[in-house]
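To close the chapter, one final illustration. This time we ask the reader to focus less on the individual chains and more on the assembly as a whole: which components sit near each other, and how the overall shape emerges from the parts.
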Amino acid sequence: MTKTASSWSGIERLREACLGLTLLEIETLFPIEGYLFTPREMEKVLKMGPRRRKSFTAARIALKDLSRQIGLIDESRPDHTIETLGSDNETPCLDQSGLYCSVSHSDRFVVAVAHRHPVGVDIEAVSNKIIRIRHLFLSPSEQLLFSQSTLDPGKTATRVWTIKEAAAKALGLHLFQAFREVEVIKGDIEKSVMTFEDKTYSVNHGEGDGQVISLVCCGEP
Ligand SMILES: CC(C)(COP(=O)(O)OP(=O)(O)OC[C@H]1O[C@@H](n2cnc3c(N)ncnc32)[C@H](O)[C@@H]1OP(=O)(O)O)[C@@H](O)C(=O)NCCC(=O)NCCS
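The assembled structure is written out below.
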């Protein structure tokens, strides 16, 4: 867990909504790549530029840490034997467990979550840029909700954006499909509510260090 976690709000609630959560500050990580990666992870990382390599590496550290945290992996098992790259070479996994997981990185942090049911997490820095492009991902009724909200506009827009990214991951949607078809019907600081195909989902948020996390779970932990 990151040292700055105490300055975050909602992290314990996020943790209770899933099987486990790891939140790390990327600049504090100093991995030794030869010890960290499985052969498949190594093959993928070798094709990456420095920026992508950093976020991919941070995601591997968070997922391996999470596997130990939830007791899936013995503490003594070496990192390079814990697979965190799904069979499609894109989506994350927690070794051969069959548990669901999700990971997200922002400019500063990486967050990983585990769950017995499909799950999606997203972290973004709060920014006014998201407000400027809100017409791209807010439906007319979400625009109305947005305009009536008493919350900070940047924080509200970042919540909706992260809800849709997390929903895309949890529900296996293309991001643009999530922008169009996931509808946020209630938005608040700690919890929001979204719908997709007549189903309603409660979304938990965490916030700290100018970042927002949204967690979408498709069942009880
Ligand atoms: C998947 C996607 C939404 C992630 O958004 P992002 O803000 O760029 O990145 P984040 O840091 O939040 O998440 C990245 C992580 O999501 C995971 N991921 C990638 N594709 C995924 C998918 N289809 N479903 C679930 N998780 C996925 C990966 O673990 C990735 O991190 P890693 O490659 O370092 O392991 C983005 O890559 C995207 O828009 N892809 C286009 C294709 C698409 O929409 N696919 C299906 C939607 S999930």
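The chain has two domains: 3-118, 121-216. The mean pLDDT is 94. With these observations in hand, you are ready for the problems at the end of the chapter.
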